[in-house]
């Protein structure tokens, strides 16, 4: 027997879970598809068999224990989810820290790279200007900018 695309909706049709439009479409399909009609008859027979089966008696104490476990379940699930998310966040943080640490240093470099303006400021000063370190820095930057304009 080949599978029909409507086969998946047969149980919902039998249980009355489909919308009015979908129920009409399924009823029309069942009149035209013998495979689905046979499958629907099997599902009806199974429903009848299950409905006629005796239901086991569950003691009140067992029901109480079951309800208590169900009531405690969401808190545990939420806690475990929060723990898992915190662990993932920690892994992302560690990974980013490692990535930043390895990206900021060129491969094989053992010391930090000195900016060009610092090298020029130290090696090209014919005389030590007087003043505070801030004034000296300003003079070096002004000299460097004036050289760039002249070139």
Characterise the protein shown here.
- It is a single chain.
- The chain has 151 residues and is mostly helical.
- The chain has helices at 10-15, 20-32, 34-52, 60-103, 116-123, 133-150.
- The protein folds into three domains: 7-52, no CATH class; 58-105; 116-150, no CATH class.
- The chain is built from six helices and no strands.
- α2 packs across α3.
Descriptive key words:
6 helices, 3 domains, 151 residues, mainly alpha
Secondary-structure blueprint of this entry?
Blueprint: H1 10-15, H2 20-32, H3 34-52, H4 60-103, H5 116-123, H6 133-150
Helix pairs in contact: 2-3
In short:
With 151 residues, the protein is mainly α. The protein has helices spanning 10-15, 20-32, 34-52, 60-103, 116-123, 133-150.
Count of extended strands: 0
Strand content: under 5%
Percent of residues in helices: over 70%
Order of helices and strands: HHHHHH
Could you list the spans in which at least 5 consecutive residues all have pLDDT below 50? none
How many helices? The count is: 6
Assign an overall shape. elongated
Largest sheet: none
- The whole-number mean of residue pLDDT values reads 81
Total domains, how many?
3
Measured on Cα atoms, how large is the radius of gyration?
39 Å
């Amino acid at each position: 027997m080949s599978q029909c695309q409507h086969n998946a909706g047969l149980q919902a049709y039998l249980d009355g879970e489909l919308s009015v439009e979908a129920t009409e479409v399924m009823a029309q399909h069942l009149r035209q598809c013998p495979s689905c009609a046979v499958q629907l008859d099997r599902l009806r027979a199974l429903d009848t068999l299950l409905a006629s089966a005796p239901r086991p008696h569950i003691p009140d104490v067992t029901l109480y224990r079951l309800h208590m476990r169900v009531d405690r379940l969401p808190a545990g699930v939420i806690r475990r989810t929060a723990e898992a998310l915190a662990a993932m966040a920690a892994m992302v943080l560690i990974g980013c820290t490692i990535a930043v640490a390895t990206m900021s240093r060129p491969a094989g470099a053992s010391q930090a790279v000195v900016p060009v303006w610092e090298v020029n400021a130290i090696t090209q000063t014919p005389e030590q200007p007087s003043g505070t370190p801030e004034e000296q820095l300003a003079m070096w930057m002004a000299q460097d900018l004036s050289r760039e304009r002249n070139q």
